[in-house]
Amino acid sequence: MLSDGNAARNRAMAPPLLHLQSIALTLGTARLLSDAELAVGAGDRVCLVGRNGSGKSTLLKIAAGLLASDGGTRFVQPGATVRYLPQEPDLSGFADVRAFVDAGLGPSDDPYRATYLLEQLGLTGAEKPERLSGGEARRAALARTLAPSPDILLLDEPTNHLDLPAIAWLEAELASLRSALVVISHDRRLLERLSKSIVWLDRGITRRIDRGFAAFDGWRDETLEQEARDQHKLDRKLVMEEDWLRYGVTARRKRNVKRLADLHTLRERTRQAQGPAGGPKLAAAGADISGRQVSVATNISKSFGGRTVVRDFRTRIMRGDRVGIIGPNGAGKTTLLNMLIGLAQPDEGTVQMGASLRIAALDQRRESLDPKRTLADTLTGGKGDTVEVNGQTRHVIGYMKDFLFAPEQARTPVGVLSGGERGRLTLAVALAKPSNLLVLDEPTNDLDLETLELLQEMLADYAGTVMLVSHDRDFLDRVATSVINAEGDGKWQEYAGGYSDMLIQRGERVPSAASKSARSGGTVSIAPASATRMRKMSFKDKHALDNLPKQIAGLQADIAKAQRILSDPKLYARDPKGFQRASDALNAAETELAGAEERWLELELMRELVEA
Fold this sequence. Notes:
Radius of gyration: 25 Å
Oligomer: single chain
Distance between the termini: 46 Å
Strand content: 15-25%
CATH architecture of the domain at 5-221: 3-Layer(aba) Sandwich
Number of strands: 22
CATH topology of the domain at 5-221: Rossmann fold
CATH superfamily of the domain at 5-221: P-loop containing nucleotide triphosphate hydrolases
């Protein structure tokens, strides 16, 4: 267990409410946990992170006392109460939702708290379990878990199947609680707002740092890179397949500056096409855009049973756009999406589809996966050992590596893959299909953070158009060139940019991404959108924005040079001092590059907000 020294000493002074030590667990022949630790003190805010299949949910079940470990100890302070939210709540055996929630209350718990939570979560308590949607079942489970006001809350993917209003409410509710929190979630924005400590579960062991989740990416990359350097010093091979799988995500992140620049370019084009928010959405079609339009909706409306879910909506979606559709559950997001891609007809208005469209949809339920087929056969369709992606023929093993699969998994039956691995395979299958329009309905559900990063990279590389429904605010900020938001009463409005851009254009309050506050684990400040827009760029800011790309390119060249020197496996034995000089130079250049990239991103965001 690794930790910051001062915070570790502080925790040692106050006995934790819950403490797992040296936890080990073997499932079948696989060692899932070997030396895992989790300490939770009063008021702690801990996010538990790691890849799908790393054992996060298993460790949380052990913490909840629902699963016994093969080795190690579990200690809970006498009198401390622990409540656990599972990923898949089971309401069977209960007459209605209220009975399910009341069953979680203790003798001293306030039943009015349960009533309040049900009302806030949009439930009456009379709903029958067998008729609940996934989102309603999740809301019922949240009410049952939060009603007792326990000392420790263990939450496994609490935002799954929730819409944006429910996520915002849950975020505020959890922030107001005195209970200690341990949260597993793929919602980066939720983790950044709530967490004060990170426990990273990796290869069966845990590492801890007492900083907010905003510090995770840099900490993880630094840890993995230090491991690589340590291995090199021991004259071990650096470039192994396992290392590639582990460090590939880190390497891809180095391209984020270019990715963001490309995204800004697309967003700027969207703004120019749309004009100011709230203004006309369609420009006169001409010969110059022939063949570039994907979907043009003109005054479309749709009603069900007397309720209008889409009212007089207009938009034009062009090739290369990344359009996010957002709104509360039941607002009609999927209905609008189906009309825009030609799968449903509007009651009024018209939808003109572009020519030669080939649509691929992400099968999030994974029903198309045959559990008996091997991973390689699933990707190739059983036709040889190659797969065609974006018009290029690739060997299936190389394509598997893009999705973090090891070569030896090629002949593994799909049925024995973990849930996270099946999620990555679903992405691989969808993106391997020849298409120029990718349709994603809740693509981020159940994906771990590294797979989310992978999906963002895949969408950045995708040559066609993307239309998606999502409740993940951070994902929308990183991917979307525009968002279509449900405004109520069947009205929809399109905004240029991502989710945060939409809030700014609506004049709503946007959380500041102040890095100092995030890194210190302190409260993230909130600033009015109008104040953000009015901030001016100084001459120094503009000069830095113009010159940072050259500085970044120079640092990347320095890093590449140091990496070439260190790639010699015999360097350390032949010239230890030279190896150390190259290592120090690499560390210094990477640290300076990270600072330069962060500064560039801050200035570029400032520029975009000022121009908006």
